[in-house]
Design goal:
Largest sheet: 5 strands, antiparallel
Pfam family, one: Chorismate_synt
Shape: globular
Cofactor: FMNH2
Strand content: 15-25%
Protein name: Chorismate synthase
Bound molecules: ligand EPS
CATH superfamily: Chorismate synthase AroC
Low-confidence stretches: none
CATH architecture: 4-Layer Sandwich
Pathway: Metabolic intermediate biosynthesis; chorismate biosynthesis; chorismate from D-erythrose 4-phosphate and phosphoenolpyruvate: step 7/7
Helix content: 25-40%
Number of domains: 1
Number of strands: 17
Organism: Gottfriedia endophytica
Strand order of the largest sheet: 8-7-9-15-10
Mean pLDDT: 96
Number of helices: 12
Structural class: alpha+beta
Radius of gyration: 22 Å
């Protein structure tokens, strides 16, 4: 499968075309909308989310609630566009209109794509960069993720995420968090945290940042349960599934690091305390007594839960802006202030779930058949039985 998203933050809509979704998958706009709503929430979101009620329109590839096997087109309309029709219009404008209409930006925000993107494409108006580099695009990726999650669900795999740190406030978690626990606790938490003890502290940290005109980042953890053994590859470096997941997480706006399993902690432990012992019983087949590897060995799944962490930096649009240089005058100025969130970590957690779900669904389809959901289900069932007895 593959997909392409298009759309500017204040343009008319976000569009995505997904190609290669097998036929016979049950999917409705309502299911996708549920995921879009989850992305819009979380303590620390800014005013844009009060303007938008993200809903999807399915324009192709689905008939009467089932996929056809043809490309699926999804559209999420930007309600805010009505305030930006002139500024973001596609028709040419006169020189006189330009000053009035364009809301030209010339002071790049440190930490954003503004300066590098402007130099790359030769834009003297930074809005030409900002509009596409905005995290608004992640709404399209969550819509795609909703389709991927549905594929996974029909194949017995579930993905869920939770927030483990915001602005230095860490959740105390001394066990492997399960999807059941995430659904029961994180799903109702305004910061998507399973540890209700630190919830208030995380909220206070976000509120304080907002009061100061500042922003905070954090860490999310994504869990996937139900993956069969041996998905991915040890044969080629670019087919290792853990590497694909790392790239997918790093591809989310503002993400700066990834860990799989115990991740960086493995550097300081002896091998005997890192590697997971292999056990077998007739009911469950091969399992591990621990899961430090986070569900991966040799670029392939071990059948244990997949555990991936992602680090998000604080959003760089600051109401208390940092120093910058005006690209027209070269004078020192404070950076432009565009509307912003003081913290988007809980929302980014939903985006991270989505991109992980996509990679896993894609890999299962690669390995177990491409055209029909029913065939893929049968092939997978057979493989699960085979690997249990192996
Ligand atoms: C976002 C949409 C954006 C921002 C935010 C996330 O809309 P606007 O720029 O109109 O406020 O609210 O994105 C950023 C702060 C950013 O730096 O990318 C969204 O839909 O999630």
């Amino acid at each position: 499968m593959r997909y392409l998203t298009a759309g500017e933050s204040h343009g008319p809509q976000l569009t995505v075309i997904i190609e290669g979704v097998p036929a016979g998958l049950t999917i409705t706009a309502e299911e996708i909308n549920g995921e879009l709503k989850r992305r819009q929430g979380g303590h620390g979101r800014g005013r844009r989310m009060q303007i938008e009620t993200d809903t999807v329109e399915i324009l192709s590839g689905v008939r009467h609630g089932k996929t056809l096997g043809s490309p699926i087109t999804l559209v999420v309309v930007n309600d805010d566009f009505k305030h930006w029709t002139k500024i973001m219009g596609s028709e040419p404008i006169s020189n006189e209109e330009e000053e009035e209409v364009k809301r030209k930006l010339t002071r790049p925000r440190p930490g954003h794509a503004d300066l590098n993107g402007a130099i790359k494409y030769g834009h003297k108006d930074l809005r030409n960069v900002l509009e596409r580099s905005s995290a608004r695009e992640t709404a399209a990726r969550v819509a795609v993720g909703a389709v991927a999650k549905k594929i996974l669900k029909e194949l017995g795999v579930e993905v869920a995420g939770h927030v483990i740190e915001i602005g230095g406030v860490k959740a105390t978690i001394e066990h492997h968090v399960t999807i059941k626990e995430i659904k029961e606790k994180a799903e109702i938490s305004p910061v998507r945290c399973v540890d209700s003890q630190v919830e208030q502290e995380m909220k206070d940290c976000i509120d304080e940042a907002k009061k100061q005109g500042d922003s905070v980042g954090g860490v999310v953890e994504i869990i996937a349960e139900g993956m069969p053994i041996g998905v991915g590859s040890y044969v080629h470096y670019d087919r290792k599934l853990d590497a694909k997941l790392a790239a997918a997480i790093m591809g989310i706006n503002a993400f700066k690091g990834v860990e799989i399993g115990i991740g960086f902690e493995a550097a300081s432990l002896p091998g005997s305390q890192v590697h997971d012992e292999i056990i077998w019983d007739a009911e469950n087949g091969y399992r591990r007594s621990t899961n430090n590897a986070g569900g991966f060995e040799g670029g392939m799944t071990t059948g244990m839960p997949i555990v991936v962490k992602g680090v998000m930096k604080p959003i760089p649009t600051l109401y208390k802006p940092l120093k910058s240089v005006d690209i027209m005058t070269k004078e020192v100025y404070e950076a432009s202030v565009e509307r912003s969130d003081s913290c988007a970590v809980p929302a980014a957690c939903v985006v991270a779930e989505s991109v992980v779900a996509w990679e896993l669904a894609n890999e299962l389809i690669e390995q177990f058949g491409k055209d029909q959901m029913k065939q893929i289900q049968e092939n997978l069932e057979e493989f699960r039985a085979y690997s249990k007895q192996f």
